[in-house]
Amino acid sequence: DPDDSMLTVVGTSPPRGAMGVPRDVQISVEFSEDVDPRTVTDSSFKLLVDGFTLPGTITWLENVVTFTPVSPLAPNTTYTVRVTTAVRDLEENPLALEYIWSFTTSSALSPGSFGQID
Fold first, then answer.
1. pLDDT attached to residue 114
2. Is the pLDDT assigned to residue 109 strictly greater than 80?
3. How far apart (Å, rounded) are the C-alpha atoms in residues 107 and 109?
4. For the chain, give me the number of helices (H) and strands (E)?
5. CA 36, CA 60: separation in Å to the nearest integer?
6. CA nearest neighbour of 32 among 84, 86, 94
7. Which of 9, 67, 77, 84 is 20 to 30 Å from 49 at the Cα level?
8. Secondary structure (3-state) at 111
9. What dihedral angle (degrees, nearest 10) is formed by the CA atoms of 87, 23, 71, 65?
10. Residues with Cβ < 8 Å from 94, sequence gap 6 or more?
11. Beta strands in the chain (DSSP E)
């Protein structure tokens, strides 16, 4: 019985509209099914600020994809995450709809990261 159900986003971290997000945040998306890691790339999973794509590392574990920015995010700044329909599940079913959400960072790094050199 082939799987023809569309892939959907079931959760995000940080959540949509979150405020005071730590600047050293890892951004995660939970999908309805395991994703094909070959389809999760820097063109299908983007962290954007003022229209610019920020560099980072993408990792995945089954149905959760995590984006780790290469450096701490700017303070008191709104970031947008964009996951495109190029992301597919293991049966090659695409993400049903492009998923976009935003969050805003806090003024400080998280308490555990003091002492690190920016």
1. 46
2. no
3. 7
4. 0, 8
5. 9
6. 94
7. 9
8. helix
9. -20
10. 6, 7, 85, 86, 87, 88
11. 9-13, 27-31, 45-49, 52-53, 56-61, 64-69, 78-83, 99-104
